[in-house]
Amino acid sequence: MSQREWIEKDFYKDLGVSSDASADEIKRAYRKLARDLHPDANQGDPKAEERFKSVSEAHAVLSDPAKRKEYDEARRLFASGGFGPGAGYTTRPGGFNGGFDLGDLFGGGAGGATGGDGGLGDIFGGLFNRGGRTAGSTRPRRGSDVETETTLEFREAAQGVTVPLRLTSPSPCTTCHGSGAKPGTSPRVCPRCNGTGVVTRNQGAFGFSEPCDDCRGTGSIIDDPCPDCHGNGVANRTRTITVRVPSGVSDGTRIRLAGQGEAGLRGAPSGDLYVTVHVRPDKVFGRNGDDLTVVVPVSYGELVLGTTISVPTLDGRVGVKIPAGTADGRVLRVRGRGVPKRDGGAGDLLVTVKVAVPQKLDDPATEALQAYLKAEKTSGFDPRAGWAGV
What Pfam families has UniProt attached to this entry (predicted)? Predict the structure, then answer.
């Protein structure tokens, strides 16, 4: 909705109440209209739907005492200034006739830095969340966020590790501790803006706030700047910080370290540091969520007869029993031996058994295998029975 439409809105008329209606009267009027105009009761009626939106909008403003007060103040302000519907607006005789740009009042014009003491941006900013800069927003801003990366081994990422990171970025000056003033001195409150960072200039019936030129909107003046940071409170330096990477992080995980980013000017809060973690693949292990996966080579005889094999884990080895008659490719689950979880538990270890076929056999092994195949056939076993319609 445009600024002009906000100005011309009559929320009292939308609810059918007077401008001095009590809170109870506003509530009763809204409930009745909302019930009559609700879309469920007027399906396919666009006019009723639009009316319902207008009523809801009016109630949202008039039912809130603070918003209602600001809305009433804005209406009185424009009424006293001669603003009214039409192609152009006049604030006073001989001023801003015809082509007056409402954007100037809301911070859109070149000279319309709103906020501070009595500017229109204060009224409409609080009421419609459209306000321009306020006194506080002209103060030194929080430092920028910083991003960096680190690469971990698979097992480090799974188990958690503390890694050092070397960064070069704007940081609080170690000489003045971020104040911007020479050691032994302190910034003083700007006498022109009284520390608000903004000054108000009058233009007719209205007051407009803008950043103070004397303190450049910071609210303070440094008479004797720090020789190392030249009054900014920030200096580029190389530092090493330790980052605790929690257990179970996966490739691409982003870790946030509050306050470890770029320093703000003159003691303003620092930004955050975001560390993107990359994980190198492991030759033995894989991951499936919190489960640790491993493929173990076994012999055909171990699957047929059954056995117990030793399998590696993140913190040692564990014995895994292979039942007799286990099929090639079967997955055996070992509870609680997977990737550690942040709640103190752990995923499972998923062991896939895979037959390793010997590339060459000596004569005794060949003769034994031929004898086995003959016995297998005699017993009636056919590995392709029922396969492909056979």
Answer: DnaJ, DnaJ_C, DnaJ_CXXCXGXG
